[in-house]
């Protein structure tokens, strides 16, 4: 048992004075169950087991791998795997949520060792000092941080709901595209849209080349564009018009991780004079027949993902599709008026999602401000 040997009037105590860091025996994945007591691994619950190691909620620190230093609090009666360091026997002078928030704020950069395989050891944790005011003060601080954290977590759950709503809106209006129970016409993509691959970097006489911004694979995510980093590329002047992006173009990646194959997003002329690279397909619909939002949703749906995975060439964990396979994509083509109604629904959902995302950013700033207020000098 931990001995409460520290003086409560001291400003800081060693973490190992108020708990006992320990790694428990790891349960093999094959031995996890579908029900029983929850098992905590490196990043939270990973399954269930017939036994548990901890009667009470316990602080856990991911101690191996890329997410080394992530914090969790286990449920009562849980099994803790060896990839998480359990802070056992927490002192009665320490509030578990207070210690949790302090460690989240402090981080573990100075105690993580190893480069190929980052890890946190009990010896490393023995260097950490924690400010420990009286218990009522700890509980007061933890209560304030709990309320601030609860608000942002609730909004994150609501944000997930909007993501699910975006996914389900298509089926609500048009039915399952796999079975086509709506009886809609089906056309190959190249019958209703122009499909073009992007440009590679060119070399030549300086007078023949211009430097322009371009969309890379990293910029095109599922249903959205990541425009935080925009690079430029040198291309021949004569090629610029061919690859210039226009509002409403659908951009789709040609390859990547199999579970992310076919990432697609709509271009809205966010950046003037922009083109796209050769690892991105540009799909420009015939707007009398097909709407960009409608096409993009089909690419990103389970229906689209399954088609691309079946068609894709896969090597060493990377999957890719070619121009012919994309042109042959079977598109459901309901009346354009219905597609535009769908677009309106999607835009309304996205507007609400954008508002909520802004609120979450503000709540994260408030939460971090509160952490700094209580722990900045510690």
Poorly predicted runs are 1-10
Characterize the quaternary organization of these chains.
Answer: single chain
Q: Quick check: average pLDDT? A: 89
User: What's the tally of helices?
Assistant: 10
Shape: elongated
What percent of residues are in strands? 15-25%
The order of strands across the largest sheet is 2-8-5-6
First-residue to last-residue Cα separation = 27 Å
Major sheet: size, sense and barrel closure?
A: 4 strands, antiparallel
In terms of structural class, how would the helical and strand content be classed? alpha+beta
Secondary structure blueprint with pairings:
Layout: E1 12-14, H1 15-18, E2 20-22, E3 37-41, E4 44-49, E5 59-62, E6 71-73, E7 79-80, E8 84-88, H2 96-106, H3 122-125, E9 129-131, H4 135-174, E10 185-188, H5 189-192, E11 193-197, E12 209-215, E13 220-221, E14 224-225, E15 231-236, H6 237-243, E16 250-253, E17 255-256, E18 264-266, E19 275-276, E20 280-285, H7 292-300, H8 302-311, E21 313-315, E22 318-320, H9 323-327, E23 330-333, H10 336-375
Parallel strand pairs: 3-7, 12-19
Antiparallel strand pairs: 1-9, 2-8, 3-4, 5-6, 5-8, 10-23, 11-20, 12-15, 13-14, 16-18, 16-20, 17-22, 21-22
């Amino acid at each position: 048992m931990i001995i409460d040997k520290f003086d409560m009037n001291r400003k800081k105590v060693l973490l190992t004075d108020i708990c006992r860091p320990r790694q428990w025996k790891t349960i093999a994945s094959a031995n996890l169950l579908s029900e029983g007591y929850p098992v905590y691994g490196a990043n939270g619950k990973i399954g269930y087991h017939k036994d548990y190691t901890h009667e009470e909620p316990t602080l856990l620190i991911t101690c191996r791998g890329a997410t080394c230093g992530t914090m969790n609090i286990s449920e009562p009666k849980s099994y803790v795997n060896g990839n998480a360091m359990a802070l056992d026997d927490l002192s009665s002078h320490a509030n578990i949520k207070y210690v949790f928030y302090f460690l989240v704020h402090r981080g573990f950069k100075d105690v993580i060792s190893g480069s190929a395989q980052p890890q946190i050891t009990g010896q490393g944790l023995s260097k950490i000092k924690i400010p420990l005011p009286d218990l009522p003060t700890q509980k007061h601080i933890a209560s304030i941080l709990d309320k601030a954290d609860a608000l942002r977590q609730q909004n994150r759950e609501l944000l997930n709901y909007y993501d699910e709503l975006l996914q389900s809106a298509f089926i609500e209006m048009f039915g399952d595209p796999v079975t086509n129970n709506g009886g809609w016409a089906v056309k190959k993509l190249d019958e209703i849209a122009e499909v073009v691959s992007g440009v590679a970097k060119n070399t030549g006489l300086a007078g023949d080349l211009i430097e322009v911004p371009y969309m890379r694979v990293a910029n095109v995510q599922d249903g959205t564009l990541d425009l935080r980093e925009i690079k430029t590329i040198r291309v021949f002047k004569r090629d610029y018009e061919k690859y210039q992006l226009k509002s409403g173009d659908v951009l789709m990646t040609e390859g990547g991780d199999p579970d992310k194959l076919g990432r697609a997003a709509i271009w809205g002329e966010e950046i003037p004079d922009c083109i796209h690279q050769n690892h991105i397909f540009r799909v420009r619909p015939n707007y009398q027949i097909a709407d960009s939002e409608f096409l993009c949703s089909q690419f990103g749906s389970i229906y689209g993902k399954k088609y691309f995975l079946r068609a894709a060439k896969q090597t060493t964990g990377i999957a890719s599709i070619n121009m012919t396979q994309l042109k042959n994509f079977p598109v459901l083509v309901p009346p354009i008026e219905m597609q535009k109604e769908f677009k309106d629904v999607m835009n309304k959902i996205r507007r609400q999602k954008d508002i909520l995302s802004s609120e979450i950013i503000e709540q994260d700033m408030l939460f971090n401000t509160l952490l700094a207020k209580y722990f900045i000098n510690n």
